[in-house]
Specification:
By secondary structure, the protein is of the alpha/beta class. It contains seven helices and ten strands. It has helices at residues 9-26, 41-52, 80-87, 109-122, 159-165, 184-188, 203-211, and strands at 2-6, 31-34, 62-65, 67-69, 99-100, 128-131, 153-156, 178-181, 192-197, 229-234. The chain binds 2-phosphoglycolic acid (PGA). 2-phosphoglycolic acid (PGA) binds next to loops.
Length: 242
């Protein structure tokens, strides 16, 4: 793992955005794996700036998002599809038909999951994947469990994740209880992974990811086995690995 520690989150965003922009400059039809949450917002802002300044053209890019809440349609203002439109897509020139977010409203999540993995595979695979990390070590919505899940699948969100995400909803009761997420196997197939952790509440998870035993109870620990992972942390998130 290539670990870089920064003083502030804007610098992390600039570096992560530059990794994405460089990827797209060197391969204009790159496949980008994208994430939601507070963590990637500075990266998405910096990607928009790179685009505004004419540094990078996203017109041939294809994107696959990690996950979506079950029960929220794309137009719901807390859906991850909506988040991506607001925080990235409307500020760059990715074509609508090249944007993929798993459907949270389909009855048959097994079928949707298999189709999503097949689409990623058919595209040639994710060239670069951005990830955040949960306080409990989850990546995407792969919560701590007894076995690393392979493909895109339905998950029951843990109480910890529901509480962490309640800040985006009027009440905690409104947070969906289920989600559809790329599996650990899907994520590990990405050619390059950039994982960002900011804030003291991520320090234990960062420790588990970087120095802990590789085990499904700490999902991010699997990244120790990936050949090309860059960890971008602020000092608070990195405090247990310094
Ligand atoms: P956050 O979420 O960026 O909102 O902290 C990260 C995650 O849960 O993966």
């Amino acid at each position: 793992m290539n670990i870089k520690i920064f003083k502030n989150t804007d610098d992390i965003g600039k570096v992560a955005a530059m990794m994405f922009s460089t990827q797209v400059i060197s391969k204009p039809n790159s496949i980008l794996g994208l994430a939601t949450g507070s963590t990637p917002i500075p990266t998405y802002k910096a990607m928009q700036k790179n685009y505004d300044e004419g540094l990078v053209d996203f017109s041939q890019v294809t994107t696959f998002n990690l996950d979506e809440y079950i029960g929220l349609s794309h137009s719901h203002n807390q859906s991850y599809y909506y988040f991506m439109q607001e925080n990235l897509f409307r500020g760059i020139n990715v074509k609508e038909e090249n944007i993929h977010v798993p459907s949270g409203t389909s009855e048959d999540t097994d079928k949707i999951g298999c189709e999503y993995d097949a689409m990623i595979e058919a595209s040639g695979g994710v060239d670069i994947q951005i990830l955040g990390i949960g306080q409990n070590g989850h990546i995407a919505f792969n919560e701590p469990c007894d076995e690393f899940p392979m493909g895109t699948h339905k998950v029951t969100l843990t109480e910890n994740t529901i509480e962490a995400n309640a800040r985006f909803f009027e009440t905690k009761d409104e947070v969906p209880k289920f989600a559809i997420t790329m599996g650990i196997g899907t994520i590990m197939k990405a050619k390059k992974i950039v994982i960002i952790a900011t804030g003291e509440n991520k320090a234990d998870a960062v420790y588990g990811m970087v120095k802990g035993e590789i085990k499904p109870q700490m999902p991010a620990s699997i990244l120790q086995l990936h050949p090309d992972v860059t960890v971008l942390c602020d000092e608070s998130a990195a405090k247990r690995i310094l």
